[in-house]
Amino acid sequence: MTCRILTRSFCLLLTCLWGSSIAQAQSIQSTIERVQQRTVKVFGAGGIRRLHAYSTGFVVSRQGHVATIWSHVLDTEELTVVLSDGRRVRAKVLGAEPQLDLAVLELQDKDLDLPAWDLEAEVADAGPGTRVLGFSNMFRVATGDEMVSVLHGVVAAKAPLVTRRGAFESSYEGTAFIVDAVTNNPGAGGGVLTTRAGRLLGMIGKELRNAESNTWVNYAVPISELKQPIRQIIAGKYRARQRDPDETNVVARFRPLEFGIVLVPDVLFRTPTFIDRVQPGSAAARAGLQPDDLILFINGDLVQSCRVFKQSLGRIDSGGVLKLTVRRGDKLLPVELPVPDKPDKPDKPEKSEQPEKPATAGDTK
Amino acid sequence: MRRFERDWLLCSRAWLVVLVVAVALAVLPRPSFAVDPAVLAAEAKRIEVASRLAKSVVAIFSRGGRGGGSGVLISPDGYALTNFHVTRGAGTFMKCGLSDGKLYDAVIVGIDPTGDVALIKLLGRNDFPRATLGDSDTLKVGDWTFAMGNPFLLATDFQPTVTYGIVSGLHRYQYPAGTILEYTDCIQIDTSINPGNSGGPLFSAGGQLMGINGRGSFDKRGRVNSGAGYAISINQIKLFMDHLRSGRVVDHATLGATVTTREDGAVVVDGILDESEAYRRGLREGDEIISFAGRSVRSVNQFKNILGIYPKGSKLRLVFRRGQVRKEMLLRLRALHRASELSGSPKPMPKPKGKPKPKPGGKPKPGGKKRPAARKRPPVAKPPEKYKHLYVKKQGFANYYFNQQEQKRVLSGLSRLGDFSGARGAWVLAGKTAAGDAYQLTVADVGVGLSWKQKAYYQELDKAAEPLDEPKGSGGLLYAMHMWRSFLAKREKGFGEFFYLGSEPLDGVGARVDVMISELGNVRCRWYFDRKQGRLLGFDSQREEETDECEIRFSGDIDSGGRHWPRTIRVSSGGQPLASFGVETVTLKTGAAQ
User: Do A141 and B358 touch (CB under 8 A)?
Assistant: First the structure.
C-alpha cells in the first residue's frame, strides 16, 4: 500500500519535472530566437593575412543603430550589415570609442524598424557561476538569413582585464566578464553575452591570446560600460576619452608637432596620414605643406597610417634631412624638411596633439 | 602557569562558541542548501542516458594499430556508422573496441567520400547494442546534445568520452576544403569535438542518434575544440543508408546548373549544362528557383544544403519562376563527380600539397583524424582468416561482397514470377491500350516489333544495331522491352554490369523501393523492386547518357503458362505519358521469331 502511494507520488513528481523541463526548453528556444533577431553580421575590410573580414553587431535602436567591436573590419567604405532575416544593408561608422573597443554603426536604410535592445530594461549584471549564452557570427558559419551561432557557458569571473604589452595585448582594460565557453573566435567580436533568460550582459570582445603561454581568454565587455557611450554616439554628443598615455609610450625622438605638422585624429586601425593643420612659421609651413596633403612616403618608406608615420618619425636620426612625399590632389610632391639636432634621450610620453574633438566616422578616402 | 590557564580558558571559550554554533545549526531551521529536485532529476536522467548510449559507441583502430576514430552501432548484426576519413587509412579490415572492453573485427561496407560517411560491419555477434536513429529535423537551436567517442584516442578500455553541449546552429553549409569532402545541411554544436571524435555519434538529450561528428572549426588554436563542431545529420545519412549497404563508393548529386543570389535576394540560375536533364526540361539561365525537393530556397547556401544531402540519381522536384510564370519539374540528378574522382578502395585521397591555404575570411578546415600528408601508407595487415571471405574487391566498390548479398536479397522475389530462364523464345504480348487502340508487341532475339495505331515500329538487335528512340519520344520503348526480356530470362548474364544500387522513393515521390542497375553497352536500366514482397514494379531504360529515359511501370498480374505477367504496362518519357498497354494475351514461341 505504502509502496503504491510512493510509486504514484514518484510518478507525479516525474511528470511535474518532465513538464517543467519542456517549458524550460521552449523558453530557452524563444530566448535564443529573440536574441538572434537582434544580432547582425558585419562585413568589411580584411580577408588578407588571416585577418578576417567579418564581425558581429547588435541592434541598439529601432532606426538602425548597431553596436559592434572596434576593429580593422570597419576600416572601409564598403561596410555591409546583414540583418537576421538576410537583408543586406550598407552602413557607416557613426562613432567609436577605441578604448572600449566600441563602435556604433548607422544603417543607411532608415525605414527598417528593427527589433532592438532596450539598454535600460533588458540588461543585467552577473557574477561568477551565472549560466550564459554567447551569440556571434564566429567563423562566418552563418550566411544570409541563417541565424548566428549560439554557445553556452558560465561566467567564471567578473574582473578587470589586466593586459600586458607584448604578452597579453588588449585595447580594452576595464572590467570584463570572463566565460568558460569559447566565445571569442574569429568574427565573434561584437556579439552578445546574455543570461539564459535573454538579458543583455555584455559585448563579446576580441580574440585575446597570451603570447607567452599560447592560452586564450574569452571575455565580454559589460554593457554597463558601453551603454552610456552608445547612447551619446547615437545622439551625436560623444566625446572620446583621453587617449591612454600608454598608447604612445614609446621612445619617440621626434614628433610631428616638432615639424609643425598636425595630423588628422587617429581613430582608425589604419588612419590615412592626412595633414589636418600646419603650424604657421614651422618647418612644415616653410616647406609648403598644406592641410589635406596625404603623406605617402617618409625617407623612401611607405607610410600606411598615422601610427606608422609617428613611429617612423620617432626613429629618424637627428640632424640631416627628412624627406617626405605627399599627394596633393592628383600630384605627388617631394618635400624636404631640416631635422633639428637632438640629444639621444627618451622623450616624455607624447600627449595627444589633438584638442578633444567628437569622435567621427573617420573618413577613409 | 597563568599563561597556560589563560590559554586553556581561551581555548575552552573557543570550543564553547563552536559547540553553540553547532547546536544552533542542528536545532535552528536549516537554510535551504538542498539541491533543486529538478536538477537532481535532470542529472540522473543524463547519467542514465549516457551510460545506456555508451554501449553503442565504437572505438575504431586501423589494423596496423596506428590512428583511429569513433563510430556508432546502428543494427544488432553489427552495422556501424563512422566518417569516411576515419576508414580511409584503416584498410578493409579494422579493429573496433566497445565499452564491454572487448575488441571486435570489422570490415568496410560502403563509403561516401563526399559526405564523409562510411558504413562498416562489426563481426562476431548478432546482438550488438545499437543506437536508435532519430529525426534530425526535429532538433532546435539550444537543444542539449551528447557527443561520444574517443578523442585523442584516450580510452584504452574503450569507454567512450562523453561531452555535453548545445546545438549552435542548424542547416549549416561547410565548404569543401582541399578535398571533395563537403558538409551540407549539417548540425553545428558547441559540444566539445576533438580529433578522435570523428565518426562518433551525436545524440539528442533523449538519446536518439542525430548525427555523426566529423568536423570542427579549428582556425588558429591548433587542432582542438574551439566552440564550433559539425555533425553530418542522420537524415542525410538515412537517404544514403541503403546505398552504403550496397558496398559501393557512393556519389552525391548535381543539378547541372549553378545558382547565384540576385540583388533583390532571389536565387537565380547563372549557368546550366546543355546536356543536363534540367536543361532538357526547360530550365534556363535567369530562372528564379523557388523550391527544391520540397524546401523553399532563399539563399545559395540553402540550395547547396538541399542538393548536398541527396545521392546521385535522385529524382527531385524543382519549382522555378520565369517572369510571372511558375513552373514545376521532376528531375533525375546527375553525378557530382567523375568515377575517377572518387577513389574505389579505402586508400588515402590525393591531398593538397603542403598546408591548405587559409581561405579569405579564415574558413574552417576539416577536422577529425587527418594525418600529415607526408605519412606513409600503413602496412597492409593481413585480414583475419576467419573473415577474409567477407571482402571482395571490385572497381567502384568499397566491398563488392555486400553488393552480392543485397543482389541475392532483392532478386529472391523474382522467382515468384515463375521460371523465365526457359522463356528464351519470342514473346508476343497483345491487347489494347487504355485509349482503346489494339497493339501487338513481339520481343525476340533478332529484334523487337510493335504494331500499334496502324503503324509498325521495329528495333533491330544484331550486334551493330543502335538502340533507337522507337516509337519517337518514348525514350526507346522497343529497346527497353528487349532489356526486360533479358533481365527476366538471363538476369546478370544478360548484361555487362549488374549491381544493387540502394533504395529511393519510386519516381521521387512514391514509396521507397530497392533499385538494381543493369548496363549493356551504353544502355543503363534502373530496376525497381517493392521492398516487402520483392515485386518488380518497373524500370527506367536510358539509351545513352544525357537522353530521356523510357519509364516503364508494371501493375496487376496475369498468369500465363505458369508465369506471372503484368496486366498493365504504363510507358512514359521525359515527364510525358506515352500509353498504357493492357496485356490480354501472352504467347511464348520457341525458336527464332519473325
Answer: no
